[in-house]
Amino acid sequence: MTAWRFPAEWESQSAVLLAWPHAGTDWAERLGQVEATYVALVSAIARFESAIVCVADASVHLRARAQLERAGVPAGRVRFVEIEYDDTWLRDSGPITLVDDAGAFRLLDFRFTGWGGKYAASRDDALVEGLTARGVFRNGSPEAIDFALEGGGIETDGAGTLLTTWRCLSERHPGLARAEIEVVLMRSLRQGRVLWLDHGYLEGDDTDAHIDTLARFAGPDAIVFQACDDPADPHFAELGAMADDIAALRTRDGAPYRLFPLPWAQPIVDDGRRLAASYANFLIVDGAVLMPAYGDAADAGAAVVLAQAFPDREIVSVPCRALIWQNGSLHCVTMQLPRGVV
Fold first, then answer.
1. Closest alpha carbon to 212 in 222, 203, 202, 221
2. Of 30, 26, 108, 20, nearest to 64 (Cα)?
3. 164 phi and psi angles, rounded to 5 deg
4. What Gene3D superfamilies does UniProt report for this protein, alphabetically (predicted)?
């Protein structure tokens, strides 16, 4: 029997999958600003590995290619794929990949419901099937799973431990008990156990507390998490309770995790709406960690913490203030693909 495994993000990668924003998406009002972020993001990815950029049509393709060429991104590092999509949050609509020791891949295609029916999502839900039909995946076979789950809602250490939040999974499946959800997660993702966080949220996050905005593995024995050190901030009590949840977690060997609390950015408000500026929404690529930066004094401190958590990787800051206007950040718009799958 094939021993499938859900690899950690820090394992070797083929490419990072993204979708270019365009005037037919929710980015239309601030398209120029968010495109500048995408140029910076693809430029950073291309320093270390390839980027696969979904484009909605030929005109979006030409626009994206021209901007990346002007920025000096090597053409050989970027592959464009024309395909329709509702939005650009590919962490949640892209494939979740399992690997085996023989070099085969299984592309898990969970149901994407627009974060519990908040937004239209039919084209995003068909994305994995569409990319497969276009020959993007060389060694991967898709597997549709009739269970609502987003990639941003789960985090793995690559050795059989899954980290997630009860707030998100209970919102997606209000009729299921925790033990029932655990059975589905462990069976479909080949996990030996599930660690739950019962606290943690960010204002301006419409994912119902995705784990990738709150806490991330930095190795089998380490967790990086978003802290809040401002007692006057409305997040203080909840993120403090989340920190207690994390401190109580244990590795498979029964030891406490090494913990790396990230600094707290000052509130970023847009038209009276608080935006979710989380430093936990970083992306690990081959040789580097791409860190969201928000033009805040805490950016520098976040880079220091990530350098401590990932001492063998370069920390690269990517300006992401434009992304949080639409309630997500750097990790949310990307999906890494393991080495050999494309």
1. 202
2. 20
3. -155, 180
4. L-arginine/glycine Amidinotransferase, Chain A
pLDDT of residue 2: 65
How far apart CA 280 and CA 225 sit, in angstroms, is 6
User: Scanning the structure block, which residue is given the tokens 């069976």?
Assistant: 187
Pairing of strands 161-165, 193-197: parallel
For 15, other C-beta atoms within 10 Å of its C-beta total 23
> DSSP class of residue 16?
E
Which residue in this structure is represented by tokens 């479909």? 188
Average pLDDT for consecutive 10-residue bins of the chain (342 residues)? Answer: 88 98 93 97 98 98 98 97 96 96 92 91 94 91 94 98 98 97 98 98 94 98 97 97 98 98 96 94 98 97 98 98 95 97 92
Report the chain's terminal Cα–Cα distance, integer Å.
24
* Domain ranges for the chain: 13-338
Residue that the structure tokens 């985090």 belong to: 155
d(CA 306, CA 124): 31
Question: For the whole prediction, is pTM greater than 0.85?
Answer: yes
User: What are the structure tokens assigned to 82, written together?
Assistant: 């024309």
pLDDT tens-place string over residues 241-259? 999 999 999 999 999 999 9
Burial 271-288 (b: 16+ CB within 10 A, else e): eeebbbbbbbbbbbbbeb
CA distance 158 to 12: 12
Dist. CA 328–CA 331, nearest whole Å: 8
Helix (H, G, I), strand (E, B) or coil at 73: coil
Please, what is the angle between helix 58-70 and helix 31-46, to 10°? 60
Residue 269 one-letter amino acid: V
Structure tokens at 183: 């059975």
Chain centre distance of CA 51? 15
In whole angstroms, what is the distance from residue 195 CA to residue 217 CA? 12
Kindly give, in sequence order, each residue whose CB lies less than 8 Å from that of residue 117, ignoring residues fewer than 6 positions away.
none
List the structure tokens of 100. Answer: 């085996």
The residues annotated as belonging to the active site are 332
